[in-house]
Please model this.
Amino acid sequence: MDLRQLRALIAVVDSGSFTEAAAGLGVSQAAVSRSIAALERALGVRVLHRTTRQVALTETGVKVVAQARRVLDEVAHLEHIVAATRAEVRIGYAWAALGRHTRGLQKRWAAAYPGVPLVFIHANEPTAGLGDGTADVAVLRRPLTDPRFATVAVGEERRVAAMATEHSLARRRTLRLADLARYPVALDERTGTTTPELWPPDARPRAIRRTHTVDEWLTTIAANQAVGVTPEATAQQNPRPGVAYRVLRDAPPITVRLAWRPDSPPAGLDELIELVKALYEKR
Model:
């Protein structure tokens, strides 16, 4: 067996489907299926029950997953130890890095630490690359309760609405959540920041369109198949032909956090936090 197979298994278990696991891993569904099949051949046992509607762990699979999580966590820890010796700091993000502050942070960091590049890495999973060691620090816009990681709030962002440029709502300068509820709403519940609970219980969207990546979310909206709600950083960092962004007057702001592994923090972490906070305080 290899680590790729273990990561595929964990992704399937956590997402509940081969399709979403593939999206999170950035590979095809067939590749995930092959990895699981290869793992089962290596172990000589079935770890998953597959039906047309759901995927469930076998009794042995429950034990395998528990051990696989420990193995992958140890590997990620090892990668962080090695990363501490590299002359760069990797910042992971799932959707939009720091929006309009991204370039400002890069310039300020380069001036203060000219020999230590600040590298932004897209990682389409809930910890934005921290879990598998892809990132040293992560930009998060959803609460993270995993005890392996420490977090700090660095700023707030407004929420904006997104719709196709030909949509009737695009003719208005500002909108309310109720304006969107009449249309299908595109949601990425794995790494996005919008859920049906953003609306009052008696005014939820009439339909939900599930997406799995920011690119799929934008493509769905540009095709006028749904509208969406997102942090303003998405509008600033992901302009897309055919997509219009409008300010939402009654949506609560989003807290932006930085996260890291407290047992192996990257060099310059305190300075990084202060730089990001200063950028958000300037608005």
